[in-house]
Each structure stands twice: as structure tokens, then as C-alpha cells.
Amino acid sequence: MEDCIFCKIANKEMGSLLYEDDKVAAFNDINAQAPIHILIVPKKHISTLNELREEDEALVGHMAFVASNLAKEKGIDKNGYRLIMNCNHDAGQTVFHIHMHLLGGKPLKAGLA
Ligand code: AMP
Ligand code: ZN
Asked: pTM of the full predicted structure?
């Protein structure tokens, strides 16, 4: 989608990717909240989790699978990590192209809200 920053990164028009395949791309978060902070995004533009369709079920599963492989590659799988997807205002979503945060490399704050 035009003017979507994550579409541009996923299409390699800007930034650099840590991983890509035909369905998803992954790159470092520009404002890392932990030693490892990677974003996994679908190549298909989906604004929020509310726009997911039944046909996207496998895509979101694939995002989690890619995140778990990246966690292994970065060596944070044994100590642990957190996957987060924010939806809309109350969750603090700021980029309206769905993304999964992979956070780790230090003990993360307990609690979810
Ligand atoms: P969220 O609050 O869940 O929408 O997360 C959006 C994330 O995207 C934030 O952690 C930002 O730091 C990150 N972000 C915004 N712009 C960029 C960019 N150009 N490259 C990498 N990460 C970005
Ligand atoms: Zn997009």
C-alpha cells in the first residue's frame, strides 16, 4: 500500500531486512525496547488485526514460526522472549500494518497491562 512504511520496508524500498520469504519480512525495530527487538510483518498489507480474514490464519501462524526461528538464530530461545501484536489505540498501535514484536535478550518486565 502506498505511503505505508512497513510495505516499503517489506518491499525493500527502504531499510534493510533480517529475513524474508514470499509471505513475510523481518527487520530491527528502529526504537529497540530490548537488546533484541525485531518486527515480523506480512508482505500483504493488513492495517490491524481487525482486518484479518479467514484466509490469513496461516499467515499469522507463519509470522509466529518465523519469529521463533529468529529467536533461535539470535540465541534467545532458551532464556526466553516475548511476542506482541498491538491492535488500535488502547494497545498503543502506531503503525497500521500488522506486525509482531519479537523482544528478548534480557529479563522482560513481568505483566501484560
Ligand atoms: P506498534 O506500537 O505496535 O504499532 O509498534 C510500531 C513499532 O514500529 C514501534 O516499536 C516503532 O519503533 C517501530 N517503527 C516505526 N517506524 C519504523 C521504521 N521505519 N523502521 C523500523 N521500525 C519502525
Ligand atoms: Zn503496509
From this structure: 0.98
